[in-house]
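Hi support team,

I've been running sequence recovery on a batch of backbones for a student project. Most finish fine, but this one hangs at about 90% for roughly twenty minutes before it completes. I'm not sure whether the input is malformed or the queue is just slow. I've pasted the structure tokens below so you can try to reproduce it. Let me know if you need the job ID as well.

Thanks,
M.K.
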């Protein structure tokens, strides 16, 4: 059985609007929304570069610049901040200033990559960052650098001329070290020809290095000997980890870190056969230095 229930419609007419009502924002709310859209600022764009690149350590300098950084909204860059976020192990070089668009006269002291980060700030307080990498590549064909872990321990780097015994020629004209090689006046190899002579470019007493000895055109006959001297009378006399890196033709060919203990000890690290292009490790350990080691 089906039941039909009558429905009484009261006050209905054909022009009655049953569509949903959409309320519009009052004028004051529209103004507020437009204001919010107007104050949404964009972050600044940091643009960084370094030149010249690469450079030859330790005396060639580079300039880091962020002058091309900009605000996409047309605003002003109000702050620049530079930071070295990565440097080669043993590097002591740092920025002379960090709050300028341009950082000049940066001189890397060891070979390797130096990564700098620039952060810029606009008027709205928003920031943007970028990174740029400076390569430090030795110009000399033979480059020996040294650094150590603890300061207050005077470590000295020695390079012995090819075919000369290091103990028999310690602190002689066939031994390049702080006492005779700072100005590169030793005359090795071809007499009167400076390109095959060694030079001690960096020497450090109170810190942790680096120290550096280099030769532009090494002799092709014989082997150089690299020796470390733990100079006596230092403030720090405990064990110290010392690293020596050897570069051939601008490329790292050999690196070793050894724990050195014992004042006035001498430790041969390696021999360098330039003609063969090889580095020969010396693992005989530390020994007493020759008697002239204090001079």
């Amino acid at each position: 059985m089906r039941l039909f229930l009558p429905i009484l419609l009261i006050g209905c007419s054909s022009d009655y609007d049953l569509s949903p009502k959409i309320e519009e924002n009052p004028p004051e709310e529209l103004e507020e929304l437009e204001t919010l859209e107007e104050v949404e600022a964009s972050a600044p764009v940091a643009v960084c570069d370094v030149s010249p690149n690469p450079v030859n350590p330790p005396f060639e300098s580079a300039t880091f610049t962020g002058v091309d950084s900009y605000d996409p909204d047309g605003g002003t860059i109000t702050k620049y901040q530079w930071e070295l976020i990565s440097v080669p192990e043993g590097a002591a070089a740092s920025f002379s200033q960090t709050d300028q668009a341009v950082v000049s006269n940066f001189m890397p002291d060891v070979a390797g990559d130096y990564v700098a980060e620039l952060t810029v700030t606009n008027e709205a307080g928003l920031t943007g960052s970028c990174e740029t990498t400076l390569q430090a590549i030795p110009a000399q064909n033979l480059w020996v650098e040294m650094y150590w872990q603890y300061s207050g321990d005077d470590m000295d780097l020695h390079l012995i001329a090819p075919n000369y015994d290091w103990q028999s020629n310690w602190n002689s004209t066939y031994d390049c070290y702080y006492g005779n090689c700072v100005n590169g006046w030793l005359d090795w190899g071809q007499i009167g020809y400076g390109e095959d002579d060694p030079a001690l470019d960096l020497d450090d007493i109170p810190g942790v290095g680096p120290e550096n000895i280099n030769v532009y055109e090494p002799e092709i006959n014989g082997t150089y000997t690299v020796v470390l001297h733990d100079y006596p009378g230092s403030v720090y006399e405990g064990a110290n980890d010392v690293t020596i890196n050897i570069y051939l033709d601008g490329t790292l060919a050999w690196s070793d870190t050894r724990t050195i203990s014992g004042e006035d000890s001498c430790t041969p690290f390696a021999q360098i056969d330039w003609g063969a292009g090889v580095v020969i490790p010396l693992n005989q350990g530390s020994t007493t230095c020759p008697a002239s080691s204090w001079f």
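--
Follow-up from support: It reproduced on our side and the slowdown came from queue contention, not your input. The two ends are 126 Å apart (CA to CA). No action needed from you.
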